[in-house]
């Protein structure tokens, strides 16, 4: 019983001390400092925790697209019919909606490339039925090479198509070399019609390593020494022939 009375007196005394302190120095409610928060000022409600605003991570500026040379398919009008329907008379008289479906406007890339190849072949072929001459093969390879070049400008890491392009260039170079030796007038006409600049290959090309340079210098040195020995030998033979001739003249 005495313990309960002692606890009551202690609690009454502590509550009295707290009341006196609160009356002397009033306690301010909790406020958050918006200056410490990143971003704009935030209105804080007393007695509540303010959540800082989300930091905006702005995206980088868009890269400027590189403008390369114009495509070889840019000169094809979109109203032109596909190659499969160009010779069909019914496709010429149909309504506009069907013509649009059959035109190059909604055609795939392979259809446009096929039509471009036929245009290049028509420039250089010998007659209407010529499909296997050197000129026709050069024209088809030219259309394929230009298509690879346009593709590699956008996808420069495509090694497989780069290899195919180099193989096609090498094949076309061999055909042009053969055509230049056999029919020079046809060679000039093909280069002019297709816009090809023919460059002559070097007479001799090899990777000049240090070992190859030293070996070449040694071979040149040996060659000069051999030529010098042969010249001395020829001179000695001429002297011996001249001496035998003078001796024979004296003996007579």
From TrEMBL:
The record's Pfam families line, in alphabetical order, gives:
Ribosomal_S15
Query: Biological process GO terms, please?
Result: mitochondrial translation
The record's InterPro entries line, in alphabetical order, gives: Ribosomal_uS15 (IPR000589), Ribosomal_uS15_bac-type (IPR005290), uS15_NS1_RNA-bd_sf (IPR009068), uS15_ribosomal (IPR052137)
**UniProt entry keywords in alphabetical sequence:** Coiled coil, Mitochondrion, Ribonucleoprotein, Ribosomal protein, Transit peptide
Q: Where in the cell is it found?
A: Mitochondrion
Q: What highest taxon heads this organism's lineage?
A: Eukaryota
| A GO term for molecular function | structural constituent of ribosome
The question of whether Cell wall biogenesis/degradation is a record keyword is answered with: no
Q: Where does the record locate the signal sequence feature?
A: none
Q: Which residues form a coiled coil?
A: 110-158
> What does the entry list under GO cellular component?
mitochondrial small ribosomal subunit
HAMAP family from the xrefs?
Answer: Ribosomal_uS15_B
The family classification in the record reads: Belongs to the universal ribosomal protein uS15 family.
| Matching PANTHER family | 28S RIBOSOMAL PROTEIN S15, MITOCHONDRIAL (PTHR46685), SMALL RIBOSOMAL SUBUNIT PROTEIN US15M (PTHR46685:SF1)
Which protein are we looking at?
Small ribosomal subunit protein uS15m
Q: Which organism was this protein described from?
A: Seriola lalandi dorsalis
| Upper lineage | Eukaryota, Metazoa, Chordata, Craniata, Vertebrata
């Amino acid at each position: 019983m005495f313990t309960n009375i002692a606890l009551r007196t202690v609690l009454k005394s502590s509550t009295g001390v707290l009341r006196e302190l609160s009356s002397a120095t009033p306690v301010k409610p909790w406020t958050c400092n918006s200056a410490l928060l990143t971003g704009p000022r935030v209105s804080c409600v007393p007695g509540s925790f303010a959540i800082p605003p989300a930091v905006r991570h702005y995206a980088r500026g868009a890269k400027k697209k590189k403008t390369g040379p114009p495509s070889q398919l840019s000169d094809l009008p979109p109203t032109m019919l596909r190659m499969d329907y160009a010779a069909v008379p019914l496709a010429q008289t149909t309504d506009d909606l069907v013509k649009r479906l059959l035109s190059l406007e909604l055609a795939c890339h392979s259809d446009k490339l096929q039509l471009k190849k036929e245009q290049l072949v028509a420039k250089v072929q010998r007659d209407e039925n010529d499909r296997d001459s050197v000129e026709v093969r050069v024209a088809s390879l030219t259309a394929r090479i230009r298509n690879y070049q346009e593709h590699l400008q956008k996808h420069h890491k495509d090694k497989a198509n780069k290899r195919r392009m180099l193989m096609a260039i090498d094949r076309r170079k061999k055909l042009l070399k053969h055509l230049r030796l056999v029919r020079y007038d046809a060679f000039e006409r093909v280069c002019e019609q297709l816009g090809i600049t023919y460059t002559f290959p070097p007479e001799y090309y090899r990777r000049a390593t240090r070992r190859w340079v030293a070996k070449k210098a040694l071979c040149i040195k040996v060659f000069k020494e051999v030529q010098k020995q042969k010249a001395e030998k020829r001179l000695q033979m001429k002297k011996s022939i001249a001496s035998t001739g003078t001796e024979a003249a004296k003996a007579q």
